[in-house]
Design a protein that fits this description.
The complex is a heterodimer of chains A (524) and B (673). Chain A is α+β, with helices and mostly antiparallel strands. In chain A, 28% of the residues lie in helices and 25% in strands. Chain A has a seven-stranded antiparallel beta sheet, with helices on both faces. A five-stranded antiparallel beta sheet of chain A has the order 14-15-20-17-18, covered by helices on one side. Chain A has a four-stranded mixed beta sheet with strand order 8-9-10-11. In chain A, strand 6 (150-154) and strand 7 form a beta hairpin. In chain A, helix 1 (6-30) runs antiparallel to helix 5 (173-201) and helix 1 (6-30) crosses helix 6. Chain A is globular, with a radius of gyration of 22 Å. Chain B contains 16 helices and 35 strands. Chain B has 673 residues and is an alpha+beta fold. In chain B, strand 5 (82-87), helix 3 and strand 6 (121-124) form a beta-alpha-beta unit. The longest helix of chain B is centred in the N-terminal third of the chain and has 29 residues, at 198-226. In chain B, the strands form nine sheets. Chain B has a ten-stranded mixed beta sheet with strand order 3-2-1-4-11-12-25-28-26-27. In chain B, strands 13, 14, 15, 20 and 23 form a five-stranded mixed beta sheet that branches. Classes of the chains: A alpha+beta (524), B alpha+beta (673). The interface between A and B is large, with 83 and 68 residues.
């Protein structure tokens, strides 16, 4: 077996990461919807012929663990030929939730299928019960159009029928078409960059280092795990509800560290539920990988090597490994955050001096749509809102940022108002919402929307009932609030709602603060 | 006042750098280069001293100055005490930014530098809508109350950024007038950057306010020292401005020095007959690259430190790789180089203070530096310390010293090649159509190998590569940019309307230039449009020409550039015109570049010695050449080291260098013999 050369390893790392970053640059610059072009809600990666990730140019951690499962699902479903491009979004066949559409292109060296490039982007609407496709549904079929792995392009030719079927099932087909073309362009760039690298270094070298780069990442995690005291660490926390019934939903985890390995067991978590907060295994895997990747302090490529020292046990039919056809729009965006919270809570017992208090623990998903008479068109819009970051030992949490499983940007107020029939009345920090402590949790945000036309609104949010925890004696962060001001009446809405707004209504979202760290009295 | 024909017959380009302040001076006696140590506590001191060394300051000199005062103040957090006035309800936009964190996988909250603390961010109740309609007029009394509080807080400058002021600046102007009436320095968003996206505009405007007091103090000090001299300040947009404007808009000088380098590179590349070059400025801790395609390419999307700055700036991409970058083996067994740098203190191991191996140490181990003639022999270095430092790393990764040194260079090259790919491939340019143009002390040691990897056919190593920025300053013209947000679909606007808008902007340009003493007949005005497909968020700039077919021409230019950049075009989709831009250049008299004829015969004294040089898997003996003795027409073959006091060029086996009429080295693959 050929051994790893430290110099070549560094050179190939550079190549793989650069390919995925170039893909990301193209996708962001050519997409049409604010969620992709402004908020960068997408990821691009490179895979070997078995669908194992080599490197990921990413803005969004929740896509990470999930993408290889997409490529693997596609590999099972279709016979790849040169020039093909496969798309999918089915959460039970390689996807996470329906709005995330993944495009996968094979890279052939000669006649041999050698690599894949793929990107995943969150589309602002994929049909379903409500505009923005984040409905309070009870089964997958209500959440939007389901795309199993199928060829959008065969041998370089677009399959118009597939395109037409897809676009007939969404509210804003024109925007979807533009975004999909941007995704296609990104893969095209990835494919040609990778082919250039092969021309320079030779196919066998590139293949060799596509394996060695995974070993490399794996070594870092093993060294990190070794430094964690052996033991078994448990934690549990709850989701507010599933939006259908008001019952809290528990997520329990026990992390057992032995030497350079860890077992992550979600036994004892609540069963899957009617409402759309179910996470599939891909989402749960992403959350686990995120936490362990974050424990590694160095800057390393994100790839499948991270999986190898970890074993994940997620009971089938539970909230962290739901069965078809459970609704799952919120699993990706909300439940994933709570999975991170319980994992970090468990790790805080192993590494009390390193782990921060809970961050806002939600993405505050706001989706709405309707008809804009002024621009004479339908609109569907989706965004998420940042909040407070949990305080670390000796460090205050940041205010008004996205934490853990997402890092999507806000849409500028001036861009939003140019695009939609609404006025943003305020966008500011929610003073005092961070948990008190020796180090303070970051403050949440306040965002106020005034609607100029009737609109269907869905809010999928969390931490409205159970606050983000503090650590080491720090106070929890303030819970979030969703408030509707309609014709002089003020109503506090639930964590998850689906309502019709009238012209002139004002929606105020107050996002949670981060937990504090250390006893408040000891703050200097 | 600026005059077209400067009264001062002596002209100077002066570039303040971290370590040295460089001078290129032109007078009746010709061109003189000079270098003195910088004086970071007060950069004007080094300028005064250096200028005094080589010219009679009291008689007055026409100076174009590249300064780091603005950038340093921002990076070191040493700007003025400032306040912000914005629309009520949006006081925190500057702090929130785009609601993202820098590091995705970091459990430790990152450090943030707060430009304006919460207590100095003031909201006023007013609102302009996206259409430009004013929903609520700003209340003068409220503004006066805020100004009262601002004065009490001891604030030096105030940034003003109200929502949608780029379409209708009326409310913003009311606030600005009251500030000016109160005698406060004001940085006003609709004047500085009339473009949409509130955070980026607010950031640009606030950073500008933050730098105003600093630039003001610096220019006072410099003016006092320079007496009768005529001073101009280089901007990041490739042209210079008068000091009064630099005081108002200091943000525009942020990349002043590097901009000089790119202007100089373009000038020399054009003279050498190779208008398409990628400039490559390799310093101690970082490397700046920029693409020149006959003209200098610009961008509107830069960050300086943590802050986005949306002004037209030369598109310079920077990476943390340089001669001082430290090499180490990471925990996963990969050889990493940088971004940590040994800087100038302790510096590379061979300086005798530190013991960590750097890129410079690797070059020394490979025989690609002349130990006896470092910085023209002014500085003593210790090659044995380089060998010890690289040797220690070699043992850790189980390789020989030579392999390790080659590896350090290869990894550093890969990092720098990536930067070149960003400004070429990612912007739709094929690097194989460009020559590489290295300058700075270390660029010439790496350029040939990098060019080979990128498929670039030639390398131009300029004469005086060590003072190129100062040379570029001497060669710069005044440049002013004017822009206007339009946001209209291309098919909804007539050629006549566009023409009218452009004429308005050009009128503004002429007025501005006339203020600085330039006649309309000496101006070159360039029109361009920022376009995108309706619905996209990022624009592509395309030239707009006055011809009758102009309209179709810009649309076609947009489609084809989109295709080139992003691999597809969307002919059916409406094209939106986001901004109109006019760039005005005042053509000023230049220092003539003199082309010398060469004899071809080489001065035998040019060869000062021979030394072993490692290249690939072999060691060859190469000549060491004193560059100052080379004459036009001379041809050198690798392996060779070509040394001048500020820089070293490594010519590997298989490559040949020709000295052109301007004393540049033109390097290409040698024809087989």
């Amino acid at each position: 077996m050929k051994t790893c050369d430290p110099i070549e390893l560094e050179l190939f790392k550079n190549v793989f990461v650069a390919v995925s970053e170039e893909m990301g640059a193209v996708l962001g610059r050519t997409a049409l919807s604010p969620n992709i072009k402004e908020r960068k809600d997408y990821s691009c990666s490179l895979f070997n012929d078995r669908g194992e990730t080599l490197a990921q140019g990413s803005y969004i951690p929740v896509h990470l663990g999930a993408m290889p499962l997409s490529v693997q699902a596609a590999l099972r479903a279709v016979a790849f030929e040169p020039g093909d491009l496969v798309i999918l979004n089915d959460p039970y066949r390689g996807g996470t939730h329906l709005p995330d559409i993944t495009c996968i292109s094979p890279v052939f060296l000669g006649t041999r299928l050698s690599f894949f490039v793929a990107n995943r982007a969150h589309h602002a609407d994929v049909g379903g019960m409500t505009p923005g496709s984040m409905p309070l549904a009870t089964e997958l079929f209500q959440e939007g159009v389901i795309i199993p792995p199928l060829k959008l392009y065969s041998r370089g030719r677009m399959n118009r029928e597939v395109f037409d079927l897809l676009l007939s099932n969404v509210r804003t087909p024109d925007e979807r078409r533009g975004d999909l073309l941007a995704q296609v362009a990104a893969n095209e760039v990835g494919r040609s960059r990778l082919t250039e690298a092969v021309a320079r270094f030779g196919a066998s070298k590139v293949r060799l280092y596509s394996r060695l780069i995974q070993d490399y990442t794996e070594r870092f995690l093993r060294v990190t795990l070794k430094a964690i005291p052996d033991g078994s660490y448990a934690f549990r926390d709850s989701l507010d509800n599933d939006g259908i019934s008001d019952r809290p939903i528990e997520i329990a985890v026990r992390v057992t560290v032995r030497g350079d390995r860890a077992l992550v067991d979600f036994g004892g978590s609540s069963p899957q539920t009617a409402g759309g907060v179910n996470a599939n295994l891909a989402v749960t895997t992403s959350a686990v990988l995120y936490v362990f990747r974050a424990l590694v302090e160095e800057d390393i490529p994100f790839n499948t090597g991270l999986m190898r020292p970890l074993e994940i046990v997620a009971p089938p039919g539970s909230i962290v490994n739901a069965d078809f056809p459970a609704a799952c729009a919120g699993g990706n965006v909300e439940t994933s955050q709570r999975i991170v919270d319980v994992l970090l809570g468990a790790m805080s017992k192993a590494l009390p001096a390193r782990i921060p208090a809970a961050s806002q623990g939600t993405m505050n998903n706001v989706a709405f749509g309707g008809r804009d008479p002024r621009r004479n068109r339908a609109f569907a819009y989706y965004e998420t809102i940042g909040g407070g970051m949990g305080a670390g030992p000796g460090r205050d949490g940041l205010s008004g940022v996205h934490t853990h499983m997402t890092n999507s940007l806000n849409t500028p107020v001036e861009a939003l108002e140019n695009y939609l029939p609404l006025t943003i009345r305020s966008y500011r920090l929610r003073k005092g919402s961070g948990g008190k402590g020796r180090s303070r949790g970051g403050d949440g945000l306040v965002r106020e929307y005034e609607f100029h036309v009737p609109a269907a609104l869905t809010i999928m949010s969390e931490r409205r009932r159970y606050a983000p925890y503090g650590l080491r004696g720090g106070s929890p962060g303030a819970r979030g609030r969703n408030i509707l001001l309609s014709r002089g009446r003020r109503t506090v809405l639930g964590s998850k709602v689906n309502i019709l707004l009238r012209t002139g209504d004002i929606l105020r979202i107050e996002t949670p603060g981060g937990g504090g760290s250390g006893r408040p009295k000891s703050r200097r | 006042m600026e005059r077209r024909d400067p009264k001062n017959a002596v002209r100077a380009g002066i570039d303040t750098g971290g370590t040295f302040t460089d001078f290129v001076i032109w007078s009746a006696e010709g061109l003189i280069n000079h270098k003195v140590l910088s004086t970071p506590h007060d950069p004007s001191e080094a300028i005064f001293r250096g200028l005094g060394d080589v010219s009679r300051v009291e008689q007055g000199v026409f100076i174009v100055h590249g300064t780091t005062v603005a950038t340093n103040a921002l990076l070191e957090g040493k700007g003025g005490r400032i306040a912000l006035i914005t629309t009520a309800g949006f006081e925190d936009v500057l702090a929130i930014g785009r609601q993202t964190r820098r590091e995705l996988y970091c459990l430790r909250p990152e450090d943030r530098f707060e430009l304006i603390p919460p207590g100095l961010r003031f909201g006023v109740r007013e609102r302009t809508l996206y259409t430009g309609r004013i929903e609520k007029t700003v209340d003068r009394n409220e503004v006066l109350r805020v100004i009262g509080r601002i004065r009490k807080a001891g604030v030096e400058a105030v940034a003003v950024c109200l929502l949608h002021s780029y379409v209708n600046p009326r409310n913003e102007e009311v606030v600005a007038r009251e500030l000016e009436r109160a005698g406060l320095m004001a940085s006003v968003s609709s004047r500085l950057l009339p473009e949409h996206r509130e955070y980026e505009r607010m950031s640009t405007t606030s950073v500008n306010a933050y730098l105003m007091p600093v630039m003001d103090r610096y220019l006072n000090e410099l003016g006092r020292r320079l007496g009768r001299s005529d001073l101009r300040i280089m901007q990041s947009n490739e042209g210079y401005i008068a000091p009064a404007r630099a005081r108002r808009e200091p943000i525009k000088t942020a990349l002043s020095g590097p901009a000089g380098g790119v202007v100089g590179a373009r000038m020399l590349a054009m003279a050498a007959g190779m208008p398409n070059v990628i400039s490559f400025d390799m310093g101690g801790t970082s490397t700046d690259v920029s693409l020149i395609e006959g003209r200098i390419r610009r961008t509107h999307e830069t960050r300086i430190g943590d802050f986005p700055v949306r002004l037209p700036i030369i598109d310079i991409h920077s990476v943390g790789a340089g001669g001082g970058s430290i090499a180490y083996a990471d925990r996963g067994g990969s050889l990493r180089v940088g971004p940590q740098s040994a800087g100038a203190d302790p510096g590379p191991a061979c300086y005798g203070l530190g013991d960590l191996p750097t890129v410079t140490d690797a070059n020394l181990c490979l025989g690609r530096l002349d130990a006896d003639f470092f910085l023209g022999g002014r500085m003593r270095i210790f090659p044995e310390r380089s060998r010890a430092a690289v040797g220690a790393l070699a043992r850790r990764i189980g390789k020989s010293v030579r392999e390790t040194a080659l590896g350090i260079v290869a990894v550093a090259n890969a990092n720098m090649e990536k930067a070149i790919r960003v400004i070429s491939v990612e912007r739709g340019h094929d690097p194989r159509r460009f020559a590489l143009f290295p300058f700075g002390g270390a660029g010439g040691m790496h350029a040939v190998e990098m060019a080979a990897h990128l498929g670039m056919p030639a390398i131009i190593v300029p004469r005086n590569a060590g003072v190129l920025s100062a040379f570029g300053l001497l060669m710069a013209d005044p440049v002013k940019d004017h822009a206007k947000s339009l946001m209209k679909a291309g098919d909804r606007i007539s050629v006549a309307e566009l023409e009218k808008e452009f004429r308005g902007l050009e009128e503004e340009s002429r007025r501005d230039m006339a203020e600085d003493g330039f006649a309309a007949k000496d101006l070159i005005l360039e029109r361009s449009l920022d376009c995108r497909y309706l619905g996209q968020s990022y624009e592509i700039d395309v030239p707009y020409r006055r011809a009758a077919t102009a309209r179709r021409a810009f649309l076609e230019a947009f489609h084809s550039r989109h295709k080139k950049l992003y691999s597809y075009r969307h002919d059916g989709r409406p094209v939106e015109i986001v901004n109109l831009r006019v760039k005005a250049v005042a053509v000023t008299p230049k220092v003539p570049l003199v082309r010398e004829r060469g004899s071809g015969a080489m001065d035998p004294r040019a060869v000062t010695g021979r030394q072993p040089i490692v290249y690939g898997s072999s060691v060859c003996r190469g000549a060491v050449i004193d560059r100052s003795r080379l004459r036009p027409g001379n041809i050198l073959r690798g392996p060779t080291l070509i040394i001048d006091p500020e820089s070293t060029t490594f010519l590997p086996p298989g490559y040949a260098a020709r000295v052109d009429g301007y004393a540049n080295l033109i390097i290409r693959k040698a024809a087989r013999r």
